[in-house]
Here is the input.
Amino acid sequence: MVDIAVISGSRSDHMIVDRVLKKLNEEGVSFEYRVLSAHRNPQELEEYITETDARVFIAIAGLSAALPGLIASRTLRPVIGVPVSAKLGGLDALLSIVQMPPGVPVACVGIDNGDNAALLAIRILKSGR
Here is the structure.
């Protein structure tokens, strides 16, 4: 069983992904990482969401940032969104993540703040013990 699933919408998000994975490694938390886009490969993403046994998702996305919301709409497990500063200073991604409709909860950390996403995921895991 893996603790955390880290998903980025694009390989170009690697700088944020690297910080998330580094923090998870430092804390000794098990994880798996995939690049899956809500727009470019939604079928693969849906299959991954249903097949993984991860307890928490970290979704890293820029621009329209549909990734965290799509994941949250397909699972009851916690989802943490990390907005990426691809355009508009990341405000577009931030607003996309925090403005989820009722019934689709997504936690959101600051723009490009993968460290806090990792720490929040770890706290969620520890609270369930």
User: Anything to note?
Assistant: The helical segments are 14-27, 42-51, 66-74, 91-98, 114-127. The chain has a mean pLDDT of 95. The first strand starts at residue 4 and ends at 8. DSSP finds five helices and five strands in the chain.
